[in-house]
From TrEMBL:
It comes from Bombyx mandarina (Wild silk moth). Keywords: Disulfide bond, Signal. The gene is LOC114243442. The active site is at residues 65, 118, 122. Residues 1-20 form the signal peptide. One of its GO terms (biological process) is RNA catabolic process. This is Ribonuclease Oy.
Length: 262
């Protein structure tokens, strides 16, 4: 019996310890709000030929990737409350807006997979502050910030518009945001077929939800916070589909056949 009791006490102390250490590790200093560019997300997703995309209805609109709590000089915390899984019912009232503005571009993924991922990985950590302490508040805040800090408009204001041909530099995107909002963003690229594409633009907030400069997590030690190669051109693409190689070949074959049969 004593043995069982001490076992129970040991278990209990483990629990208390785990809880304490978890709470400590789950602390964070600022939030990263990430908007991503659907045409680039789709190009990356469609590198696998069986994949397809769901694009937002509104043309040229950026969509939300997530709101991510972060510690100074490090990443995360992540997955702060493993018992708090995503419940679609909690966001039913805003689901239509979420589908348009925080939708899953990757069609072959399940409808809720992006929201479930963002909630369990980041939302459960963000929930330690009152304004974000439940699913509905977390996702509503994302929609609110997208409306207030619409990347399409911020870039438009600086004369930056999507184009499959034109090449921009990381500094162009940085300057557009810095000029409009007064704070430094993070500009993220992704390589597709050896070319740099504009992927995400992140802006940062203090724990009291005021805009602040993002932290130089990439340690580039330049004024711009970016993972893009600063000297290389960046495509901010209009179309989500690169022209399919087999279509070009088919076209060639058809014109050749036509010539041949004439
Ligand atoms: C994190 O960085 C911000 C801005 O530099 C600073 O105000 C804050 O005190 C830092 N927090 C911690 C816990 O170091
Ligand atoms: C963890 O999630 C549960 C819901 O599953 C919630 O009741 C509890 O308050 C959460 N704990 C913390 C520390 O947020």
């Amino acid at each position: 019996m004593w043995r069982n009791l001490s076992y129970a006490i040991f278990l209990l102390s483990c629990f208390t310890y785990a809880e304490l250490s978890d709470t400590k590790n789950n602390e964070w200093d600022f939030l990263i709000f990430t908007q991503h560019w659907p045409a680039t997300i789709c190009r990356i997703w469609m590198e696998k030929p069986t994949h397809s995309c769901i694009m937002p209805h509104e043309q040229n609109s950026w969509t939300i990737h997530g709101i991510w709590p972060n510690k100074n000089h490090s990443m995360g915390p992540f997955f702060c409350n493993k018992t708090w899984s995503f419940d679609p019912d909690q966001v039913k009232s805003i689901e239509t807006d979420l589908e348009e503005s925080w939708g899953n571009i990757e069609k072959e993924q399940s409808l809720y997979s992006l929201w479930a991922h963002e909630w369990t990985k980041h939302g459960t950590c963000a929930a330690s502050i009152e304004p974000l302490n439940c699913e509905l508040k977390y996702f509503t805040k994302g929609l609110e910030w997208l409306k207030k800090y619409t990347m399409k408009n911020i870039l438009n204001n600086a004369g930056i518009t999507p184009s499959d041909m034109k090449e921009y530099k990381a500094i162009d995107f940085h300057n557009a945001v810095k000029t409009k909002l007064g704070f430094k963003p993070m500009v993220e690229c992704h390589k597709v077929d050896g070319k740099q594409f504009l992927f995400e633009i992140r802006i940062c907030f203090s724990k009291s939800l005021e805009l602040i400069d993002c932290e130089d997590t990439h340690m580039t030690n330049t004024d711009i916070i970016t993972n893009c190669k600063p000297t290389e051109g960046i495509i901010y693409p209009v179309t989500e589909k690169p022209p399919k190689r087999y279509l070009i070949q088919l076209h060639r074959l058809l014109s050749w056949l036509r010539w041949f049969t004439v």
